[in-house]
Amino acid sequence: MSEIDSVKTQEEAEEIVLGKKLRLLRESRGYSIEDVAGQIYLDSSLIRALELGQYSKIPSESFIAGYIRNYLKLFDAVSEFRRFNILKTNSLITYQNPIVLKKAYVSNKIKKSYLFKLTVVAISLSSLTYFEVEYGLLNEIKKLSINNKTEKNKLLEEKIESVDSNDVIEQQQTKSLVKKSIPNTKSNQTIAKVDSIHLHFTNDSWIQLIDATGRKLISSFIKSGKTLEFNGKLPFEVTLGNSRAVKIKVNGHDFNQSNYTNKEITHFVINNNLN
Q1: SS (H, E, C) 212-226
Q2: CA atoms of 248 and 255, how far apart (whole Å)
């Protein structure tokens, strides 16, 4: 081991011994690390570093002797520690005036307080932005709720348009049947009786209703609990977006729609025989 390494090792050993004695002194007087830090205006981390002999963790190593003197002055024990080399120097830079330390300590506290306030303000602004976004989303949801009828109509219409080719063929065939059933003479149209269809909605549903004359009686989204009645000419061409939610009566008689409730979107024709 070189002479330089030997000296360095001796200094480190002395720092550890001095640190232990500082800790024992503090504990014997009933002080906590925080108590000492508050009294001599140093951060608690500096007090821990002094008591552990870890001077490398102290930012301003040139002030270590001053920190230790102030520590010892708090307990009126400077004379008991004069044998340690670090306290034998008369260098002015090693002494830290408590008044200067207090100013630095208070300044540091103010800075921390200022940073804390800035953090609170930043969090508050973030929260405000969050609530603004939430409020904006709520407004959008309200708008969507108001336009719910239109949106559901569009969705159901899109589903109707996406019906597979077999359903399209079936619809074309039923339309052909309806056209054939339309009276051709003016006299028949004059004496033809008016048929009524009664609709009760137990849940939200989309409906399109066309009578034998090709007149569209309704094409809309209907809310649950509504009851509607229309007059027209049989047969009626019916398209439902939620067939289970609609109860149908024609000319006062219940219409059996059990064969048409196995799909979400159904298309059928009600003729004179109510089937």
Answers
A1: CCCCEEEEEEECCCC
A2: 6
**267: three-class secondary structure by DSSP:** strand
79 occurs within a structural domain: yes
CA distances from 144 to 59, 133, 148 (A): 60, 16, 6
Q: What residue numbers bound the domain in which 239 lies?
A: 156-270
pTM over 0.85: no
- CA–CA separation, 15 vs 149, rounded Å? 81
The CATH code of the domain that includes 53 is: 1.10.260.40
106 domain residue, yes or no: no
Q: Per the structure block, which two tokens stand in for 132?
A: 């603004």
Same-domain pairing of 80 and 160: no
Low-confidence ranges of the chain (pLDDT < 70): 1-8, 89-109, 111-112, 114, 126-135, 137-138, 141-142, 144-153, 155-157, 159-192, 275
Q: Which two tokens stand for residue 76?
A: 């009126």
CA 122 to chain centre: 18
The C-alpha angle with vertex 99 and arms to 97 and 101, in degrees rounded to 5, equals 70
- DSSP state string for 191-257: HPPPEEEEEEESS-EEEEEE-TTS-EEEEEEE-TT-EEEEEE-SSEEEEESSGGGEEEEETTEE---
β-partners of residue 205 are 222
Nearest to 199 by CA among 239, 150, 168: 239
**Are 173 and 242 found together in one domain?**
yes
The residue behind tokens 């008016």 is 194
Is there a domain that residue 101 lies in? Answer: no
- Give the other-Cβ count within 10 Å of 81's Cβ: 17
Does 180 share its domain with 251?
A: yes
